[in-house]
Amino acid sequence: MTQTKYSLIYDEIKQRILGGELKSGSKLPSIRQLAEQHACSKNTIIKAYTNLEKQHLIYSIPKSGYFVVNDRYPLVNGSDIDHIDFLSAGPDPAAMPYEDFQHCLNQAINLHKGELFAYSHPQGIPSLRMELTNHLQDRQVFTTSDKICITSGSQQVINLLVSMPFPNGKSNILIEQPTYFGVIESLKVNDVKTFGIERTMAGIDFEKLEYMFRYKDIKFFYTVPSLNNPLGHTYTNSQKKKMVELAHKYDVYIVEDDIFSDLDLNAKSDPMYAYDSKEKVIYVKSFSKITLPGLRIGAVVLPELLKNTFMRFKFSNDLFSSTVSQGALEIYLKSRMFNGHLERIKELYRRKMEIARIACNRCLPTNVRFTEPAAGFYFSIYLPKKIQAPQLVTMLKHRGVSVSDGNRLFLSEFRKGNMIRLCISQVEEEQIQQGIEIIADCLHKMENEPIRFVERMEI
């Protein structure tokens, strides 16, 4: 009987939200009111509300009650479906360690008190930098705390490195194609001459890389070696070692953006930093994608020749990074809460990526290629020549599916308009198959329709 009542209550509230009867932000009846109305226990109502929260249909405010989220997207024909979000690249909302970090924040304030709210060391809280040396050592990055600088995320590191002079006296920057759009934006803003080199799931052309290092006055080469954005590709250890050797040979720095290696299923995969004996690798680490993006905490391990210049540029940028976030992160790492969280999310994202891989193999047209990483956040779909990414993105938006136009991940001369990027991190597992089916259906329709239909869809 209790289960039947629960199902009735749960289904009724869900349908009223999806049907638009309960509007976004509207307050739901209290647990006591609903229990009296349906003549059931409060536990039955709590269970219904809890499961509606897990589906992000409602949210609770302590001592205030429950409210409707209602972030549904309409279909062209007017019916409502769940928005399938392959675009957003933050962590899975259900996997964010809110409660653990709340505990860490409280404890950090109790331990450090006024220190967290006063002016702090531009390089970062010394105790956090010391803790990071232990954390990074477990990841084959052996360094000392005096070489670590805490930053406001990895994007700040990238922007500072793009804008500052380097000891090698060179001025141009080399980036993989495709790559993280944040580095492309930083290069544009700073008006830096940039070269690209193609990266595929097979790796990179080392003859071309050596040519670039030798003749193109390269200040640094930016790379995301593990589970990169947008392909999901990871270089082998031998490939990483070879890149470092070329950097040594031609006096080129490597900016190793190691944002996703914690999700790598291969425990023997080393960072490029592990092969650097001449301080040519600048190791960048961020905690945003796998914990809480709002922390805005990153770290960089700096070669000795770069340290003073980097700190000067950083000081002029923000004086110091958020000390409250630093204090909480220190406790989060020291308590080993991070390690427990990491084990949970590695399995979560591995499972989601496997679902996506199977769905792509089952649903996509045979002439459509796609990358197949085993883990991480991203994979990409290469489109037939007739189909341009902007038009497909528009059509999918009308069907309630968001994806990223791959054009923004390329320098202008590398753009072909035939790639979309998908991120599985914020998509519900049960939505992945449905989303791939919709993508496949749109691809079939666009291939069979005359070109003028594609042009009408363009915005």
Automatic annotation (TrEMBL):
Q: Which SUPFAM superfamilies match?
A: PLP-dependent transferases, Winged helix' DNA-binding domain
Cofactor(s) annotated in UniProt: pyridoxal 5'-phosphate
Q: Which UniProt keywords apply?
A: Aminotransferase, DNA-binding, Pyridoxal phosphate, Transcription, Transcription regulation, Transferase
Q: Which GO terms describe its molecular function?
A: DNA binding; DNA-binding transcription factor activity; pyridoxal phosphate binding; transaminase activity
What domain of life does the UniProt record list for this protein's source? Bacteria
Q: Where is the HTH gntR-type domain?
A: 3-71
Q: Which InterPro entries match?
A: Aminotransferase_I/II_large (IPR004839), HTH_trans_reg/aminotransferase (IPR051446), PyrdxlP-dep_Trfase (IPR015424), PyrdxlP-dep_Trfase_major (IPR015421), PyrdxlP-dep_Trfase_small (IPR015422), Tscrpt_reg_HTH_GntR (IPR000524), WH-like_DNA-bd_sf (IPR036388), WH_DNA-bd_sf (IPR036390)
- Pfam families, per this entry? Aminotran_1_2, GntR
CDD domains tied to this protein:
AAT_like (cd00609), WHTH_GntR (cd07377)
User: Does the record carry Transcription as a key word?
Assistant: yes
Q: Which family does it belong to?
A: In the C-terminal section; belongs to the class-I pyridoxal-phosphate-dependent aminotransferase family.
The protein's name: PLP-dependent aminotransferase family protein
